Structures are given as structure tokens and as C-alpha cells.
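Budget justification, computational time. The allocation requested in the original proposal was used primarily to generate C-alpha cells for proteins on the priority list. As evidence of use, we reproduce two of the resulting records. The first is shown immediately below.
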Amino acid sequence: MIVADYARGLHFIDIKSKTIETQYFADGTILLGIDALVRDKNTLLAVQNGTNPQRILALSLDDAGTNVTRVRILSANDKAIPEPSLDTIAGQEFCVVANAQWSRFKDDGTATAALDPVRIECLGLPTGGK
């Protein structure tokens, strides 16, 4: 099982042995601030909105699926995706909420400004699809 911890990186958990391996960096890239994670074949697609710039990553896994071997930035500083959050795979596309609007909320959950309609943006799957 692979779990993204926003503040601590990616955790690779062996369910049988209950061992946990945490990966903070891969291929020179920090793996903190990942808000959403979905797997397509041996690639993890991640929304990393806890970094500046906020970005969308493709994380290639080793054959065992327990280590990130390569990181590709699929989107960063994209005006069409200013505040990415949440993700899913739909057909042959990787889709994210493009404008999560977290910046328009106070810590108590109240909005500081009017909210825009939610926008979904999709990118082609870097793996060619499921």
C-alpha cells in the first residue's frame, strides 16, 4: 500500500509484515505536500500543492512498486490549474480540480471572498492509460 502524508512524504507499507518505508525525496525532488495520489500501472500521479510552485507529478516506481525511481513534472505554474487538488483517472486522462480555492478560506473554514465555479482540468496519461 502507498500512502501520501502531506507533511512526511510517501509511505510504502507492507501489509503482511506491517513495515513502513518512507520516501521524502526521489530523483532530486521533494515528495512532501502531496494532496492527492492515484496509481496508473507502475506510475503514481500526484497533486503536490504543498510546494511552490504547486504542481502535478508522475512518479515512476521500481518493478516491486516500493520505490520511486523517476519524477516527471507534468504541470507547474499552469494558469489553467492555479490551485490543483484531488485527482482521478477518467478514461485516458488524469483529471484534477483545477481551482480548489483554498486561498479563499480562513483557518476556521469561512470564505474570505466569493468562490468561483469548480473547474476540472485533464491531462493525458503519461503511461498511455490503464
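The second record produced under the same allocation is shown here.
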Amino acid sequence: MSVLDAEPREGNKCHVCSTPLPKSSLICARCGAAHGEANRCPHCNTIAGTEPHPSLKHGCRVCGGPRVPASGEGVERSGKEVPDLLEAGKSARRAMGFRLLGGLVGGFGALSLVVTLLVLLVANAGFLASVFSFATISIPLLLAAWAWRKGGQHAKTRDRALDAAWSLVVADVLASRGEELTAKELGEVIQTSENEAEQLLATLRLDDHIRARVTDEGELVYSTASPARLRVAGDQLEEEFAQLEEQAAERSRARSS
């Protein structure tokens, strides 16, 4: 098995250093190697871990694309966040490109402005020449301002897509774990701070995707109905509906007789 193979070795050991993997994680505690399909990057299709990123929250260690880390015992990923992550990655590249363009063109415009001012002071040019010079210089400066504005718009789109992706993963974690979690416990699963976890949970509460309650100990815990529980509830409703139909039919037969 090569280093690129990302499935655990026999005995649930790391495929790189052969260290036993913890049951609650698919990331080797010794060398940091990632394992399993839960750690497959939607951008480069490589099974790899993530690392903190200043603007993407977490990024792939291989390609740098935005990722949402969430692995552990009982955590199942639905993959619903992938389209938002792809959108976030595309918007992030565009934001970087426009801001780089704005910086280059703006730097050229600023340098041209300094040179033009020095020339006008030394040459003592006339009014029309000065106006024409400043009008020419304004072109790269206006282009730089436009590029920065476009970069900011793509950055906002990136942030919205990231928030949506993280919220979907939080919903997956709560649904697959099938138990109440505090913001701190959720933060440990998705490798983020307790404050950021609380913000994500608050967003989901507004969308009525999760439930929250205060325990007897005064802790605020969050939960959601797992798909298995939803299926059980649906089966129970079907049985109750069938019983009601049977009872109605019996009453109808009794009245007719």
C-alpha cells in the first residue's frame, strides 16, 4: 500500500506510520494523515486533512480549497454541503484574482501619479496639459477601484456559501449523532471555536432545523431528529392512520346493518 492510499491498514492503523487510529477520528494523532471517504476533498478529489485558513475557515492541505472538517464516532456526512463548497472555492479564486488585479493596477496608477506630479512641477506645464495628464492617470486608478469592488462582491458570495456549507454539516452532525450536544462539544467535532459553533447553531435555530433546551444543570444543548427517528415516526403515523381507517370502516358497517 502506498502513501497515497488513504484507507486504514489492517487493524485500523494509519496507512503512513502504522499508528492505531482512534475510534473517534479518521485523522492519525501521530502524523496527521487522513483516512476514509469522509476526508475526500470535493475540489481535488484527494483524501486529505484540513488546516485553518484565514478567509476560508478551513482549507484542504493538498489544494487549499474550502473544506468543513467533521469526523468522529457516529458522524455521517450527507455531502449536501459540496455545492456550496464548490461555489465558495470559485468565488474565493475570483475575489483573489480581482484584488490582485486591483493591487497591481492601483500600484501602477499611484506610481504614475507621483511621476506626473514631479514632471508637472519641473516642466511648469500649462493648464490643458495638466488636465490631460491627470485624466490619463485616473484610468488605472478607476480600474483598480472597480477591481477591488468586484473582489469584495465575490468575497461576500464566498462567505455566504461557506456559512451555508458549515450550517449543513452542523445539521448532519446533529442528525447522525442523534443526541444532544453543547456548542463546545459541537465545536470539537467540527474543529472550530465554541463562539463560532454557537453562531452556526443560532442560524439553524432561526431556520427551524434544530431544537434547543436548557438542561437541569443550566447548559444549553441542541439536537435534531435523526433520519432513523424520522422514518420510525413516519411508520408509526402510517400504522395509526391505517387503524383509524379500519375503525371508521367498522363504524360504517355497524350503521348500515
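A brief technical remark on that second record: Residues 107 and 242 are 75 Å apart (CA to CA).
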